[in-house]
Inverse folding.
């Protein structure tokens, strides 16, 4: 069995070639009079039923609380209507503070057959660190701006991969855990934030000026289902494919040493 996992790792890693390097235009400068932007993203209208899948494999690891199903976490709306896991960022900013993306958004764990965190932020040309806390085979299969396909047959071994091109990357597990999914943005500047469970966000040390502020959310409606193969059993499994991500934009003016507030309201309509 150990030889199988080693052979599997070699076969998958050999085809995991990074994308070509991307020349970014963002310049780091001293920001002595920067302001901040804070606000919320809230939901309007009836909240769709969450998309949950049956836990059909490795229940002793994946389902220690015997829930039988797992929410795919595509839309999390709090008690006060705040929408978690929305990425809020400045559009077309070319200079500002250093790339201070917090490490928790750059480190992926696989715990109880769940990707943590659900939304990742990694600077272009920076690295994503990954590990599995589970004693079962997982894979991190990436599609989009990065195309890695990495096995994690052993727990607590950290793997790092560079993200060479900016854009959105979708993550899924080909180890039969069809409910495992996450999104990653590979970003060219540091003015990105992910809303918390109450829908709040904050961007700090923003150079004074006028900007377009964008709220991005992954799709939450099931568009169709597609088949794939469990790499361990080679059995065909079905997983949902979600609708395309959605964006909302608002203009904002940041004064020197000032604080601007922007609130987004999103929904199905």
């Amino acid at each position: 069995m150990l030889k199988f996992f080693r052979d599997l790792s070699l076969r998958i890693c050999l085809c995991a070639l990074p994308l070509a390097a991307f020349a970014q235009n963002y310049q780091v400068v001293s920001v002595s009079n920067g302001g901040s932007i804070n606000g919320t993203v809230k939901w309007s209208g009836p909240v769709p039923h969450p998309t949950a899948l049956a836990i059909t494999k490795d229940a002793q690891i994946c389902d220690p609380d015997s829930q039988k199903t797992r929410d795919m976490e595509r839309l999390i709306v709090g008690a006060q209507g705040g929408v978690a896991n929305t990425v809020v960022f400045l559009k077309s900013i070319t200079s500002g503070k250093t790339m201070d993306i917090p490490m928790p958004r750059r480190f992926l764990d696989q715990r109880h057959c769940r990707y943590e965190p659900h939304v990742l932020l990694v600077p272009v040309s920076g690295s994503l660190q990954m590990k599995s806390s589970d004693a079962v085979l997982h894979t991190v299969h990436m599609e989009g701006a990065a195309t890695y396909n990495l096995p994690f047959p052993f727990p607590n071994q950290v793997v790092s991969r560079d993200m060479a091109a900016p854009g959105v990357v979708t993550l899924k597990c080909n180890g039969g855990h069809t409910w495992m999914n996450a999104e990653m943005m590979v970003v060219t500047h540091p003015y990105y934030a992910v809303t918390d469970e109450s829908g709040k966000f904050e961007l700090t040390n923003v150079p004074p000026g006028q900007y377009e502020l964008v709220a991005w959310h992954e799709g939450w409606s099931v568009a169709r289902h597609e088949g794939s193969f469990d790499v361990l059993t080679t059995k065909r499994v079905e997983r949902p494919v979600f609708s395309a991500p959605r964006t909302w934009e608002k203009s904002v003016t940041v004064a020197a040493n000032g604080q601007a507030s922007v609130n987004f309201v999103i929904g199905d309509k």
Remarks:
- Helices lie at 2-14, 59-62.
